[in-house]
Task: structure prediction
Amino acid sequence: MLDRPSWAPKHIDLDKPSSARIYNYLLGGACNAASDRAVARELLAITPEIRDMARVNRAFLRRVVPFLVHSGVRQFLDIGSGIPNVGNVHDVAQQLDPECRVVYVDNDPIAIAHSELLIQGNERAGTVTADFRDPDSILRSPTVTGLLDFDEPVAILLILMLHYVSDSDGPGRLLAHYRDALPSGSYIALTHPTRVDFEGFDKVFSIAQSTVDDITVRSYDEIVALTDGFELVEPGVVFVPQWRPESPLDVGEYPEKSIVYGAVARKT
Ligand SMILES: C[S@@+](CC[C@H](N)C(=O)[O-])C[C@H]1O[C@@H](n2cnc3c(N)ncnc32)[C@H](O)[C@@H]1O
Result:
């Protein structure tokens, strides 16, 4: 593993852990630095299940994309897309229909540099380095306006991202801004950590808080409220392993151990 990869922009301080790279480490990826691995190992020492949390979250994404394609969506705006891993949105969507168009957005330039490498030569995929909290920088970016047609349904994917948006940022107001830009028949899909009663939970979140970014854990009701103005698709807001599992193995014995709720909702 390289701690100063050639593609890592010089101004990026690899000594400062990044949520994208810690997550990449938890998923078994190679795009992480010593600082990221130190935090990840600290978290794993408290709760080895955190690796499963990352895995079942990705599995949710891999089930949601086909659901959306089968529901008529051909355009995806993946905000907080992270460092690519197995089953990226364009891989899954374009396998089902090569016409699908996908834009990856992240505020971490390293995550975007990796996505860029992956989509090279793919005319129906693009990237934008931007922040969810500045919707116009995303919705009006030339990549988004060039690839996505907002007269046709678009799915906005917010997978393990909204917990980096604090209450003072106004997540409801921001989501309303995105919702207003979407035609009916569009969707949002989100996953979001919640507080569950297991040993080590508080420690895990205080480590994540103090070393990486501010994290806001939200309750079931708060997560339901994030889908305001959309209609929740069955089974509603559930722990990610419980969202339309393909086999009992997807659900496992204790789905709440995933600590992450998932939901898909439609703009009517
Ligand atoms: C835990 S990773 C999830 C990656 C991917 N969505 C997945 O589930 O596999 C969170 C990602 O959100 C990005 N992120 C955090 N806050 C963001 C913001 N305000 N705007 C855009 N991206 C953000 C991070 O850089 C990171 O890549």
About this structure: Residues 19-266 form a domain with the Rossmann fold fold (CATH 3.40.50.150). Strands lie at 75-79, 101-106, 125-129, 155-159, 187-193, 231-232, 238-239, 260-266. The two ends are 47 Å apart (CA to CA).
